[in-house]
Design a protein that fits this description.
Blueprint: H1 3-18, E1 24-28, E2 36-40, E3 60-62, E4 72-74, E5 87-92, E6 97-102, E7 108-113, E8 126-135, E9 144-153, E10 156-163, E11 172-179, E12 182-190, E13 206-213, E14 216-221, E15 224-230, E16 239-244, E17 248-258, E18 265-269, E19 274-278, E20 284-291, E21 300-304, E22 310-315, E23 318-323, E24 327-335, E25 340-348, E26 364-365, E27 370-373, E28 379-382, E29 388-389, E30 393-398, E31 403-409, E32 413-418, E33 422-427, E34 430-433, E35 436-439, E36 451-456, E37 461-462, E38 465-466, E39 469-470, E40 481-484, E41 495-498, H2 510-520, E42 527-531, E43 534-537, E44 540-543, E45 548-552, E46 558-562, E47 578-581, E48 586-589, E49 592-595, H3 599-602, E50 608-611, E51 616-620, E52 623-625, E53 631-640, E54 643-646, E55 648-661, E56 664-668, E57 679-683, E58 692-696, E59 699-703, E60 717-720, E61 731-734, E62 737-738, E63 747-748, E64 764-767, E65 787-789, H4 792-796, H5 802-805, H6 809-812, H7 817-823
Parallel strand pairs: 19-25, 27-40, 41-42, 42-45, 43-46, 44-47, 45-48, 46-49, 47-50, 48-51, 49-52, 50-53, 51-53, 52-54, 53-55, 54-56, 55-57, 55-58, 56-59, 57-60, 58-61, 59-62, 60-63, 61-64, 64-65
Antiparallel strand pairs: 1-2, 3-17, 4-7, 5-6, 6-17, 7-16, 8-13, 8-17, 9-10, 9-16, 10-11, 11-12, 13-14, 14-15, 18-20, 20-23, 21-24, 22-23, 24-25, 26-28, 28-35, 29-37, 30-31, 30-36, 32-33, 34-35, 36-40, 38-39
């Protein structure tokens, strides 16, 4: 062992000991040399050891200890169309040099290791690993950070990736490739990744490793294998490097080694990072798998921050977490290689059956003793005054044998929405609105013709009275019982009625009707759901059903709403109020859909995600509300006489054509109170020839947000680009009335759109833009070349009628949605 290595180990031991950890050193054989020294100083929670490159055992290594970047070609000239404009510098971070990249407006290939520094790399089978600390920077672009391998040129390479978003629920680890300039993200797995503050040196370090062996590509994060795939696009050694769509970060300890060498790891199964329970609940069992860098089983320790809340017992690799007391605790797992995993636990008091008796009148829904209750009913309690959510659970028991059929936690709940397949999401099963508590049993819990009773822990709701007395819980003696109806609708029905409180209905919930149709009606057989006036508080999922109509009784009084968002359910399929997949000819008419998320609390929160790339959707006489990402659209969609409201990218997606005709597009005041007017659109059209988002004879207006915040003059952009590779910013406004909140420049040029030179067929375009009084607007301040003002002939040739706009449907067959309203759906009453 040389003196440099010894100093590194001693320094690491001192630093880790200061954090209550022990430095470890492992030695393993390597195929590259007879022996290899490897210092395992990684810590997934906060790696603090100053690791230094060994003298042997790796094909390449750079820890930047010399304060030099001589091994690197930074911001290289490549053939890729993306030209990065960020900057690199070396920064001393706690007596350790790291390489910092600060993003600006554009990304691309930002760094390559010089071929001369890779002279020992003579095989195409290797791993490339780096320690990376992501950093916040404001950008609308995808925030991927790619570690490149088998790099051939700027348009051809493989990558292991971190996709960083503002919400850790949205972050991903990915495997990607670029072939002839086309980026493909072959594997994407949701994985929590934190980022440090802008322009700071805080945050968490992560070890990202890409292994290339034959045609197999594998990506690891902190030693945990995240994803693997096969591909044969590149078989030559190539070089290594870095690519980013536009992400700031620090990087250290870059190394290239033998593909057969595995990283140290610690894996928990299940991978949950949160745990909610009540005292006395069945303990949670966690299986722990650990490995050293030499491939041997590693040791681990596990501790509870409060053993009076969570008691821990260990048997081999199984750890049992027992909820023994109410409160919160953090369970920490640390491997012998100093990798860390944590579980945050919230434990409520033990459930005891309440004995309180009340003189109920009209406080309960369903009423006490009710018969013919619908199996998809929502429970409701009307307290005498405002109530506060406490802790504990709500339970439903079968009266005949006192068997509990459902346990509903007040927080951290989930449910399975839909029918074959189901949509599993985190949910708000218990919701409070003033003195009203609404409770949704888990899907498919209640059966036909069964008597049930409700039990609620006395700690569940605080600060209120019920039926004239202090709330002390509801138990069997309280008498909240009901009996479900004997049978559901005739399975041959194709027209259903939903009513949240009337007798003449097939279902109480919209999802109940959708489930029935998906289960009993053939995919192409027309079906209609009539929805009576009411507030339906539920997320929705429609899958694989064509020719279906949802029609409300009154546009303003038939309201489907829910609070669901990126913070609750990461990803575009998790966070929408209404998710529609693999469906064609769907019509929404005469109703309101509202995602009640506040942007500062949940970020992205679609009201509707039409995830049917080849499908068609018609929305007429309908309102859609959210703040961020109100509509996410694919396929072919027509919005006629509709209102779409939001403030950040509130119409976006990968549409082939989305036509908004005679509609109002309303920017809402940002509920964070920051005065931002936001952005109306973000187009990610996948084909340059697709018309994308078209607005015909519509209005761009403004209104106060959910907290009463106004939208000021000159604060709103028509659109900003998503900055994604292979996407086109195809947006057209024809005969559009625009209020004074739209900025004179119109469009945001950060990041730059595609194409960067707009023309009559692609990019950001306008024709005959007017103010709300119908006076022609001066567009002289619009972005030069990035936007395009169409002439009358260009509009008449392709954007003046529905037939023209939808002419490319089904390989040129075309689509006239108004005809389908009359030919494919039953007449409406």
């Amino acid at each position: 062992m040389n003196s440099k290595t010894l100093k590194a180990i001693l320094a690491a031991g001192f630093l880790l000991a200061a954090n209550g950890m022990t430095a470890t050193t492992a030695y393993a054989a390597s195929d590259m040399t007879d022996t290899s020294e490897k210092q395992t100083l990684s810590n997934a929670d906060s790696p603090t050891g100053i690791w230094q490159c060994p003298d042997s055992g790796l094909y390449f290594c750079d820890d930047f200890a010399t304060g030099s970047t001589n091994n690197w070609n930074l911001l290289p000239q490549t053939e890729n169309s993306m030209i990065p404009d960020g900057s690199f510098d070396l920064v001393n971070d706690a007596d350790n040099y790291v390489l910092r990249y600060t993003a600006d407006k554009s990304g691309g290939v930002i760094a390559l290791v010089k071929p001369s520094a890779l002279s020992m790399l003579t095989t195409a089978d290797y791993y490339v690993e780096a320690k990376i600390r992501p950093r916040y920077n404001s950008t609308a672009a995808n925030k991927q950070l790619y570690l490149l391998g088998r790099y051939q040129d700027g348009n051809n390479w493989y990558a292991g990736a971190m996709n960083i978003q503002n919400s850790v629920g949205s972050t991903q680890v990915e495997i990607a490739k670029m072939v002839n300039g086309e980026l493909t993200r072959m594997q994407r797995v949701k994985t929590p990744i934190e980022q440090g503050a802008k322009d700071a040196l805080d945050g968490q370090w992560y070890y990202l490793r890409l292994v290339l062996k034959g045609d197999t590509l594998t990506v690891y994060l902190d030693g945990d294998q995240i994803a693997s795939t096969t591909d044969t696009s590149f078989t030559d050694t190539g070089i290594i490097g870095l690519w980013t769509s536009n992400k700031s970060f620090e990087i250290d300890d870059v190394r290239v080694g033998n593909a057969d060498d595995l990283p140290a790891s610690i894996v928990l199964s299940p991978r949950d990072t949160e745990y909610s329970a009540e005292v006395g609940d069945t303990p949670k069992v966690v299986e722990v798998s650990t490995r050293t860098e030499t491939g041997e089983n590693d040791t681990f320790t596990v501790t509870s921050s409060d053993s009076n809340v969570i008691a821990i017992s260990t048997a081999g690799n199984q750890v049992t977490l027992t909820p023994v007391g109410s409160g919160t605790a953090t369970v920490t797992f640390i491997s012998g290689s100093n990798l860390v995993r944590k579980i945050s636990a919230t434990i409520a008091p033990q459930f005891e059956m309440p004995t309180a008796v009340y003189n109920f009148c009209n406080e309960l829904t369903p009423a006490s003793g009710e018969f013919n209750t619908y199996e998809d009913t929502q429970l409701k309690i009307r307290f005498d005054s405002e109530v506060t959510l406490g802790e504990g659970s709500i339970r439903i028991f079968r009266t005949s044998d006192d068997v509990m059929v459902d346990k509903i936690s007040l927080i951290n709940e989930s449910d399975n929405i839909g029918y074959n397949p189901v949509r599993t999401i985190k949910t708000n099963q218990v919701r409070i609105d003033g003195n009203i508590v609404r409770i949704t049993p888990h899907a498919n819990t209640l059966e036909h013709g069964v008597n049930y009773y409700i039990a609620i822990a006395k700690e569940a709701f605080t600060g209120a009275t019920l039926a004239g007395q202090v709330f002390e819980g509801i138990g069997k003696n309280s008498g909240w019982t009901f009996t479900t109806r004997i049978n559901g609708p005739d399975t041959n029905k194709t027209t259903l009625v939903v009513n949240d409180n009337g007798h003449h209905a097939d279902f109480r919930s919209v999802q109940g009707a959708l489930n029935f149709i998906m289960q009993n009606v053939a995919a192409d057989t027309p079906a209609t759901v009539y929805i009576k006036n009411g507030i339906y508080e539920e997320p929705l999922y429609l899958y694989g059903k064509n020719n279906i109509t949802l029609k409300g009784e009154n546009r303003r009084r038939t309201i489907i709403r829910y609070t669901i968002n990126e913070s609750m359910n990461s990803g575009t399929a998790g966070r929408p109020l209404f998710l529609i997949e693999q469906a064609d000819m769907v019509r929404l008419d005469n109703l309101t859909l509202k995602n009640t998320t506040l942007i500062g609390e949940g970020h992205q929160a679609e009201t509707l995600f039409f995830n049917s790339p080849d499908g068609r959707l018609i929305a007429t006489n309908a309102d859609f509300f959210s703040e961020q990402d109100t509509l996410n659209l694919k396929g072919w969609t027509w919005f006629y006489n509709t209102l779409v409201a939001g403030n950040v990218d509130f119409i976006w997606g990968y549409s082939k054509v989305s036509l908004f005709e005679n509609s109002e597009i309303r920017t809402l005041g940002d509920s964070r109170g920051n005065g931002s007017g936001g952005y109306v659109l973000q187009a990610r059209v996948e084909n340059e020839t697709d018309k994308g988002f078209v607005f015909l004879n519509s209005k761009i207006t403004r209104g106060n947000g959910p907290n009463g915040d106004p939208v000021l003059d000159n604060t709103t952009y028509l659109a900003r680009s998503g900055g994604c590779s292979g996407c086109y910013d195809n947006i057209v406004f024809v005969n559009t009335y625009m209020d004074a909140h739209i900025k004179p420049v119109g469009w945001l040029n950060d990041p730059l759109p595609t194409p960067q030179i707009a023309n009559e067929n692609a990019g950001w375009r306008e024709y005959n833009t007017m103010d709300l009084n119908g006076q022609e607007q001066d567009l002289s301040e619009r972005l030069e070349t990035l936007s395009y003002e169409m002439n009358e002939e260009e509009v008449l040739n392709g954007y003046s009628t529905r037939e023209q706009i939808f002419s490319a449907y089904n390989n040129g067959e075309g689509w006239e949605p108004m005809k389908d309203i009359y030919n494919h759906w039953p007449r409406f009453k």
